[in-house]
Automatic annotation (TrEMBL):
Domain of life, per lineage: Bacteria
Protein name per UniProt: Cupin domain-containing protein
Keywords carried by this UniProt record: Dioxygenase, Iron, Metal-binding, Oxidoreductase
Listed InterPro entries: JmjC_dom, NO66-like, ROXA-like_wH
Keyword Lyase: no
Cofactor section: Fe(2+)
Length: 377
């Protein structure tokens, strides 16, 4: 297991969304959770989001996986980088590394991205709109970070896929060694240059955009057949200006728009469903044959554990612990099972030490049969 070598609470108070920083020795005696060969193997899988970025002779190119074995049999010595998104969904060691950041909320967590870089490999100077902790694995990389973007940087698109900027003056310029962590808030330009073949691990946190909230809320309203009403005004009066929208009518229409947002259950369910959906594919496989409730109960009684699929988001609202949102679904239980529900959201393993009611066993069985949790046989 991995353990942070600093206080996350103190870090958040001083740096989160405020300024970039380097935490030397953020992980003590850091050991890579995955080898370059394993990472290459992941990039060959069609379910896994991967990229290969190179800058040979100052010409940028970017390819998306899956890749074949031939790709890795004829690689140049330098100026390339292999990137695998959401590696925590597919590799247990990567998932354990991501677990060490659990003091930050799961609804914000996006994924763990892993990069293997040959000497001089990188993706060029760029700006991201999310928080990221970059953990240095084996090897060394030089990182430069500039002042926050206030419109002073000029964007440049390379290879039709790489959004870069043309350059920046660094406020941070340091070499990261194994176990060091670079934190970069949204909007700060940065560039990593590989000094020797190395692995790096980017733990990203991303909130939804305002336009994503609006668009997805509209979809939610339509999917749940809400708001199917028109404006009817018994006090309606004639008007002398044919093309005019009266302020009273504008106010009435605006009130209709606001009314959906003023329904607390509607908004909380929408947010729970939206935030519990992963942006990356999950390793969800329904078991064959399906489990019976009696079999699940016997497994737990025999001290067997049940595991949550890595990367699956299970969330609940602070004031409503008998409702959970799992991979975009609403799960409601009786008050007596609320402790189980919060445990499902907060923990990655269903422990046999807990006491399970028949309704709890039924819920666990349903989640296992959906492929959200699994039993190792």
């Amino acid at each position: 297991m991995y353990q942070l070598n600093f206080s996350m609470a103190e870090f958040v108070e001083q740096y989160w969304h405020k300024q970039p920083t380097i935490i030397k020795g953020g992980f003590k005696d850091f050991v890579d959770p995955i080898s370059p060969e394993e990472l290459a193997g992941l990039s060959m899988e069609k379910e896994v989001d991967s990229r290969f970025v190179s800058n040979q002779d100052n010409k940028w190119s970017a390819e998306h996986g899956p890749f074949s074995e031939d790709k890795f049999g004829q690689l140049p010595q330098s100026h390339w980088q292999l990137i695998v998104q959401a590696a925590n969904h597919w590799h247990q060691g990567a998932a354990q590394l991501a677990e060490s950041f659990k003091q930050l909320p799961n609804w914000l967590f996006d994924d763990l991205m892993i990069c293997y870089s040959a000497e001089h490999g990188g993706v060029g100077p760029h700006i991201d709109q999310y928080d990221v902790f970059i953990v240095q694995g084996h090897g060394k990389r030089q990182w430069k970070v500039g002042a926050k973007d206030e419109g002073q940087y000029k964007e440049s698109i390379q290879a039709s896929a790489l959004r870069q900027i043309e350059g920046f003056d660094p406020i941070i310029d340091q070499v990261l060694e194994p176990g060091d962590i670079l934190y970069i808030p949204p909007g700060f330009p940065h560039e990593g240059t590989t000094l020797e073949p190395s692995m790096s691990y980017s733990i990203g946190y991303r909130s939804p955009k305002e336009q994503e909230l609006i668009s997805n809320f509209a979809d939610f309203v339509l999917a749940h057949d809400m708001g199917d009403t028109h404006l009817h005004d018994p006090e309606f009066k004639t008007q002398s200006n044919f093309g005019q929208i009266r302020q009273s009518d504008l106010a009435s229409l605006t009130k209709m728009l606001h009314s959906a947002l003023e329904q607390p259950n509607t908004v909380s369910d929408f947010m729970g469903c939206l935030l519990s959906q992963s942006r990356h594919q999950l390793d969800i496989v329904a078991p064959e044959p399906l489990w019976k409730a009696e079999e699940v109960s016997n497994h737990l009684a025999a001290q067997g554990e049940i595991y949550k699929v890595s990367g699956l988001k299970a969330l609940y609202h602070e004031t409503e612990t008998n409702v959970a949102y799992i991979n975009g679904e609403v799960i409601k239980v009786e008050e007596g099972d609320s402790a189980l529900l919060t445990s499902l959201c907060n923990e990655s393993i269903i422990s046999p030490e807990q006491t399970f009611s028949p309704s709890a066993i039924a819920l666990i069985t349903d989640l296992v049969n959906k492929g959200y949790w699994f039993i190792e046989e």
